[in-house]
């Protein structure tokens, strides 16, 4: 039986409170995003001083953020030189592509079986944002924004699967995918339109609760995506 917190006295240590985002957390988010969107290039070495200067922060929060990113495999420290962004090798990339293909087939199928009205409203809103982005942000050449909206759609479908474990796995895979994806597809109007058409197909299959079609639509979309930009990594 659940009991009121007061029944057991103090649970959290003195001083533990919900707090505002720290400088370290802000630095972590900005540096990680720069790695994901390949503004910090894989295999290249960067000085901590340069990062501190550009981010306008002191050495301590930047170093703490970098240590956290090192634990997660995004970078390594090079003694006396700075930090090096880790490259993903051919095998790691193939595993990520394979995992994404199977996970997204599962999430689309489960979403078609389990999505409720709220889920569908959210997926549709993500899709509408993508359509608006095609007109607005591509003209501004805001490629990161386009990819964020793209992956927001995929996460929305995964959320509708109502399986948190699968969602968390896919969330991680989508982030890893950005580290090697050739991020030029949204420069091309034809490719961008194809992506939206494929997303539309997934959406309608899920909305109509057609599980097999949703799974097929997800697989079709990802295989075409791999062919568009990742031919050197994906051998069918």
UniProtKB/TrEMBL annotation:
InterPro entries: GntR_C, TF_FadR/GntR_C, Tscrpt_reg_HTH_GntR, WH-like_DNA-bd_sf, WH_DNA-bd_sf. It holds the Pfam family GntR. Coiled coil: none annotated. Residues 21-88 form the HTH gntR-type domain. This is DNA-binding GntR family transcriptional regulator. SMART domains: FCD, HTH_GNTR. GO terms for molecular function: DNA binding; DNA-binding transcription factor activity. The keyword Iron-sulfur does not apply. It comes from the Bacteria.
